[in-house]
Amino acid sequence: MAAPTLSTGSPGLSIRRAHLLQAIEADQPCGDAVGCWLADESHGADGLLAVIDGLGHGPEAAQAAQVALQTLGAAPERPLSELFARLDRALFATRGAAIGLLRIDGQRLLHAGVGNTRLLHWRAQGLVRLVSQNGIVGGGLPSPVVETEHPLQAGDWLLLFTDGLDERVRLPLRLPEWQRDPATLCQHLMQHARAGRDDAGVMVVQIGALA
Ligand SMILES: [Mn+2]
After folding, report:
1. Residue 182 burial by CB count (10 A; 0-12/13-18/19+): exposed, middle or buried?
2. How far is the CA of 45 from the centre of ligand 1 (A)?
3. From the CA of 55, how far away is ligand 1's center (Å)?
4. Burial class (CB in 10 A: 0-12, 13-18, 19+), 51
5. Any idea where the domains of the chain sit in the sequence?
6. What pTM was estimated for this model as a whole?
7. How far is the CA of 74 from the centre of ligand 1 (A)?
8. How confident is the model at residue 40 (pLDDT cuts 50, 70, 90)?
9. How confident is the model at residue 8 (pLDDT cuts 50, 70, 90)?
10. How confident is the model at residue 11 (pLDDT cuts 50, 70, 90)?
11. Which of 64, 65, 73, 155, by CA, is between 20 and 30 Å from 58?
12. CATH superfamily placement of domain 13-209
């Protein structure tokens, strides 16, 4: 598990994040993956977040997830629709994947998702589910890939996870320990929302105000 990181230093929003991946078989690679590429690691929250579920599980799912990570990492600044086109081409030779992407751009949150990944925008007013389109990245995209825009502000959380976790998870309150250490929210979700026999992956992102 990676330690959460804190970025500060420019006008706008700050980001702290943590993630947790769990393969169903301890001796197998995990077919789920998450990625985060910030425009400037030391300044603010602007950047790209990804959650990836290589279809099925085991080495072939893990390979699809790694190809997706490499493809996103090569040009994370590109528009979400272009990233999905690149991903669909790159994953054609693999088993394919479900992928959800979030772009943080100032106080705008852009979302596009294809396949069965889950993205929750947790605000003071409650949980907002960002809906993905049906399809398999690498198996022909929906046309068009739909991008939606949402306001983002300090105090929001973003929860990105695969279908190894149940998106009906209830989060009635924010525990102080989650605010102190987002990794504890990853652990909570893994313990309380694990669903079925599948790999599971979750990344939590805490949006704050830059000092
Ligand atoms: Mn899955």
Report:
1. buried
2. 28
3. 6
4. buried
5. 13-209
6. 0.92
7. 25
8. confident
9. very low
10. low
11. 73
12. PPM-type phosphatase domain (3.60.40.10)
